[in-house]
Amino acid sequence: MVMPLDEMPPELKLLESKFANCGLDWDLVDYRGAHMVWHGGAVFSFATAVVLLPEQNVGFAIAINSEDGELVPGLMYELADHYLNNPRANWPAAFQAYKAKQIAGGLALLEESLARSVRSRPSVKLAALEASTPILGTATSPSHRPDKNAHRLRLHAPHGRTVVHWQYDTWIARFDDPALEPAYLNFALDKDAKVERITLKPVLRIADFR
User: Fold this and answer.
1) Which DSSP string do the residues of 46-73 spell out, in sequence order?
2) Is the overall model pTM greater than 0.85, yes or no?
3) Cβ(147)–Cβ(129) under 8 Å?
4) Does residue 48 or residue 189 have the better pLDDT?
């Protein structure tokens, strides 16, 4: 089976393959001009990889009692460089640096997504919002919250949980299922200040609701 090629980030550019196939569950790739056949796996607190370099008649296995996802591929390419007589590179450190960069970028997106432009209150009272919106339940008084401006509603829907006021007529729904990302709920009101429609948008730009 032919697999699509992924463009590697600058830190890992030398690892970019010119072809990628899968045969009998083995990954078939090239690494710096050499054919590489490998397969990896992991369970809680344990990770492994088996690597073959057929043209060099070399094979090796890596097993670690750790969930460090960067260590196995880093060691894999470090050992491959050794057997291919390539200049030595600290691939474990390169993978760890790339992960740290991804985490920092994700946290920056999170901070950007959670930044409020203003502090405000909804344009209609909570009781009126509940009455005109069947999926919403009883409100929690702001006095029950450390933040006195906080308003909370219950979401009556599959995987429902609490809906917290964000700003203006926009709220954030947080779900019981941790696999579901939080979502902005925007309530559009009609001329009688009743909910006419609700639009949903993920809080995080990296989330996909399709």
Assistant:
1) EEEEEEEEGGGTEEEEEEESS--TTHHH
2) no
3) no
4) 48
